[in-house]
Amino acid sequence: MKSLKLVAAAILMAFVGIQSAKPCSRVVFLGDSTTNYVMVGRTLDWRTPIPTNLYVYPRGVEKQSMPTGPMLRWVSKYGSVLAVSYDGGVTEGMNEMGLVMNGLFCKGSIYKEATGPDSKTPVMSLAVIVSYFLDNFKTVDEVRQWLETNEFDIFGKTFDGGTVSLLHWALTDRSGKTLVMEYVDGQLNLYCSRDLRVLTNDPPLPKMQAIDAYWDGVGGVNMLPGTVRSADRYVRASFFIRHIPDNTDYDASFAALESIMGTVSVPYGYEIEGEPNVSSTQWRSVADATGNRYYFKFAYQTADFWVDLSRLSLTPGSPILKLDTKDYSRLSGCVNHHLKRSSGFTPMW
C-alpha cells in the first residue's frame, strides 16, 4: 500500500509538470514477420491552424545548418518528403530509405546552445534539423552513431507570436527501431529500441514510461485515463498499439493505426478555460516507411491524400517539388500530379 501511494504521488507530480505542454502524439505500428509493415502516425495539435506545405527534395542538393558562423554543410544523399510549417521550418518527414523523423513539443527541453562568438562548434537551426538527418542517414543506428561522435549547438527562432520552439524528436526506420532524442539541462539523451512505439510531450521519456507502467498495472481493459493531456494520450496510445493485431493486411493495419491516432487527437474546437495550451488537432499524418507513402489530412478535410515517393524521380538534378496546400479541398488520393517545381523553402533561421 505504501509503495502504491508513492507511485501515485509521483504520477501526480508528473501531471503537475506537464499541464502546460502543447499536445502532439506519435505512434508506431509494427507488422509481424510476414507483413513487416512499419507505419508512423502523428498528430499536430495547436491553438490555431498551422499553414503546412509538403516539399519533395531529390538527392544531390547542397544545404547548410545556418546562414553564417560555424555550421554544418552537406549534400543530400537521399531524397525525402517534408512537411514544412509556415514555409520556413521542417516539422517532420520521411526519406526514400524509409527513415521517418518527427519533432514534437517538449516544453522542458533545454538545448545545448552556442557558448559565445568564439565557439567553433557547428550550430544547427531547428528549421532544418529534420532535413539534416533525413538527407544523410538511412537507419536509426547510423543516426545514433553520428550523434554519439559529433557535437552541435541548437538555434531556434520563436514562431506564432513568440512561442519558443522547444522540441524533442523521434526517428523510426524500416526495421521498426526507434530513436528518441531529448535535451535535458543541455544534455542530449538518446533512447533506442523497437519497443519505443509512442511519444507525446512532457515529461521526458523515462518519467513518461514510469507513468505508463503504473497504468499497465491497472490494466487498460479496466480503465484508461481519458483527458487530452500528454501523459493520458501516451498511456492510451501505448495500450492500444500493444493490443491490436499485427498480422493483418495493409488496409486493416493502416485503419488500426489511424483509429489509434483518433483516440489521441484533440477534438476540433475543444478548449479548457484558462488552459489555452490544450489545443485542437490541426492535422494528422501517417508515414509508411515500408511502402514509401506519406499520408496527410487536415482537420477540415474530408479525405486523406498522399505523396508516393516510389513514383517520383529523386536522382541528382531532379527538381525540388512543392505541394501548396492552401486549396486543400481539391486534394484526395495520390497527389504526385499536384506537385509543382519549386526553388525550395526559405528556412526561418
Structure description:
With 349 residues, the chain is α+β, with helices and mostly antiparallel strands. The chain has one domain (2-342): Penicillin V Acylase, Chain A (4-Layer Sandwich), CATH 3.60.60.10. Helices cover 21% and strands 29% of the residues. The protein contains six helices and 20 strands. Strands 13-12-11-8-7-6-3-18-20 form a nine-stranded antiparallel beta sheet, covered by helices on one side. It has a seven-stranded mixed beta sheet with strand order 14-1-2-15-16-17-19, covered by helices on one side. A two-stranded antiparallel sheet has the order 4-5. A hairpin with a 4-residue loop joins strand 7 (89-95) and strand 8 (100-105).
Radius of gyration: 20 Å
Q: Which architecture would the CATH scheme give at its second level? A: 4-Layer Sandwich
Tell me what portion of residues adopts beta-strand conformation.
25-35%
N-C termini distance: 53 Å
By CATH reckoning, the class would read Alpha Beta
User: What is the overall silhouette?
Assistant: globular
CATH H-level homologous superfamily name: Penicillin V Acylase, Chain A
* Major sheet details: 9 strands, antiparallel
Number of helices: 6
Q: Structural class, judged by helices and strands?
A: alpha+beta
* Helix-strand sequence: HEEEEEEEEEHHEEEEEHHHEEEEEE
Number of domains: 1
| CATH fold naming | Penicillin V Acylase, Chain A
Strand order of the largest sheet: 13-12-11-8-7-6-3-18-20
Pick out the low-confidence regions.
Answer: 1-21
Query: Could you tell me the number of beta strands?
Result: 20
- Quote the average pLDDT: 90
- Helical percent range? 10-25%
